[in-house]
Amino acid sequence: MNADATTATDAPQTQPAAITAVDENAPVIVRVSTTVNAPLAVVWDLHSDIAGWARWNTNVERVEFAGPLAPGASFRWLTHGLDITSTLFQVVHGERIAWGGPANGIDGIHVWTFEEHDGGVTIHTEESWSGAVVEAQPDPLRLALEQSLTDWLHQLKTEAENR
Predict the structure, then answer these.
(1) CA angle, corner 81, sides to 52 and 129, nearest 5?
(2) Which CATH number covers residue 98?
(3) In a domain, 32, yes or no
(4) Which helix (H) or strand (E) element contains residue 141?
(5) Which of 27, 63, 100, 126 could make an S-S bridge to 77, C-beta 3.0–4.6 Å?
């Protein structure tokens, strides 16, 4: 064998790059924010308890998540009639969580950030949707996604402020 040749087993193994942001080229991108008058620990614990979402978010019918809360872990959930399997891409405790995956022809990437200030928390969420289904009808899907994220933030805010 030539000394310069490499075999498949000699080649360096590469991992796919971690997804840490929405797809800025997607036909649908929605960004919404709210401020919650509750401690960061309360807000983070509610939101990062994926298995518990259905207890306070009326748009989530069920969730199957065994953990851990770490990149690579997957969860299956039913929301707005969509049966979705999402994979966690990034988890920075108390600061940031990102997940995504395909559902009914839509490839979604969802990023949440949490910023503590003056006894409260500002939550920013953004989600991108791409795929042929989205390209065919971006405007109604953008509106649906915006309503969904606005509802989620409202319900998270209400639950956290009542604890």
Answers:
(1) 90
(2) 3.30.530.20
(3) yes
(4) helix 138-161
(5) 63
Domain count, the chain: 1
pTM (global) more than 0.85: yes
Task: Output the CA torsion sign for 34, 56, 74, 69.
Answer: positive
Q: What is the pLDDT of residues 64-103, one digit of tens each?
A: 999 999 999 999 999 988 899 999 999 999 999 999 999 9
Residue-wise pLDDT tens digits, 35-72: 999 999 999 999 999 999 999 999 999 999 999 999 99
Segments forming the whole domain that contains residue 126: 28-48+91-161
Residue 4, domain member (yes or no):
no
Are 75 and 86 a contacting pair, CB within 8 Å?
A: yes
Taking every pair of Cα atoms in the chain, the longest distance, rounded to a whole number of angstroms, is: 70
Amino acid at 100: G
**128 forms bridges with which residues in the sheet?**
29, 109
Residue 45 corresponds to which amino acid?
A: D
